[in-house]
Specification:
295 residues, mainly alpha, two-stranded antiparallel ribbon, 2 strands, 1% strand
Length: 295
């Protein structure tokens, strides 16, 4: 069984992890296209999904979705379960989309990268942009023809500053954000069978798209852990609750009733006990796990 993400990490393991992760990124994601902010293998997979697009039997209510995808305005206990599910997915994924598209210009282009971590950071940003395209395809599976809303000026400025912070300030929240993101996607996967039971083909297409994102998100957890020292790991439990509240806000508790509820304490507990167990086999087969977490 894999060990906890909070397992001790030696300097030798850290160096080997960066090398191993860089090799994994290039194999998994392909060549980076700086102009298009795209990766060759990610583009191939997305094009294949589009070429063989699956559509739901019934469309979702675009009116209900659009009214609630930025902020839940309707009573969530009375909202249709599918619209509530996808509205919350939009709200969470938009956080990442706004952050990475606003911060792209602050990361070092691959040709100018002087360190391995700079190269990894550039690829990481491109992967997150690719995730935004995959998640939009999930919406289109249920006949929601939506795009990401433009990032407002204030949000763009905040997210542009964030990548410029020194590592001592950036690494901790970046690690926790990736950790909570992996936990959220695992939760989202767990409710698909209940919420989309009447749309089996569309449900499996959404799951396929979700897993393409989860493979990277789970790998990002280990990658960001590699930046955190022993003191930072000890501080993490104090920071997870506040960052959890900031990331998910009113989403907590406002998710469809599936196999388990989404609540603040549950997400925090799962994040702090994260050890790769319980993840879908299809994700574990293709993701990257840091050496100190391998049994």
């Amino acid at each position: 069984m894999p060990r906890s993400i909070f397992s001790p990490l030696t300097a030798k393991q850290r160096e080997a992890n960066f090398e191993s992760y860089w090799e994994y990124m290039r194999t998994n994601s392909g060549e980076l296209d700086e102009r298009e902010r795209d990766l060759s293998k990610k583009r191939e997979r997305l094009e294949n999904f589009r070429k063989h697009r699956v559509l739901s039997e019934k469309p979702l209510s675009e009116e209900v979705f659009r009214r609630n995808c930025v902020k839940i305005l309707d009573d969530p206990t009375r909202m249709p379960q599918k619209e509530l599910l996808f509205a919350n997915l939009y709200r969470f994924a938009y956080h990442e989309w706004a952050a990475v598209t606003s911060g792209w210009e602050t990361t070092v282009p691959l040709a100018k990268a002087r360190s391995l971590t700079d190269k990894i950071t550039r690829y990481h940003a491109a992967e997150e942009i690719c995730h935004g395209r995959l998640i939009l395809e999930a919406f289109r599976t249920f006949r929601l023809d939506v795009e990401w809303a433009p990032v407002d000026a204030d949000t763009r400025r905040v997210y542009a500053v964030f990548p410029r912070l020194p590592g001592v300030l950036l690494n901790q929240p970046a690690f926790i954000s990736e950790l909570l993101g992996a936990v959220f996607f695992r939760f989202f996967d767990s409710v698909l069978d209940d919420c989309l039971a009447d749309e089996p083909q569309a449900k499996e297409r959404v799951r396929d798209l979700l897993y393409e994102v989860m493979i990277d998100e789970v790998a990002h957890v280990g990658q960001r852990r590699n930046f955190i020292g022993a003191l930072g790991i000890k501080m993490t439990p104090r920071l997870v609750p506040s960052i959890c509240g900031w990331l998910f806000g009113e989403m907590l508790g406002n998710m469809p009733a599936g196999r388990r509820g989404l609540d603040h304490q549950g997400l925090v507990a799962e994040a702090l006990s994260f050890d790769y167990s319980g993840l879908p086999p299809r994700v574990l087969e293709r993701t990257w796990i840091p050496s100190q977490c391998l049994a």
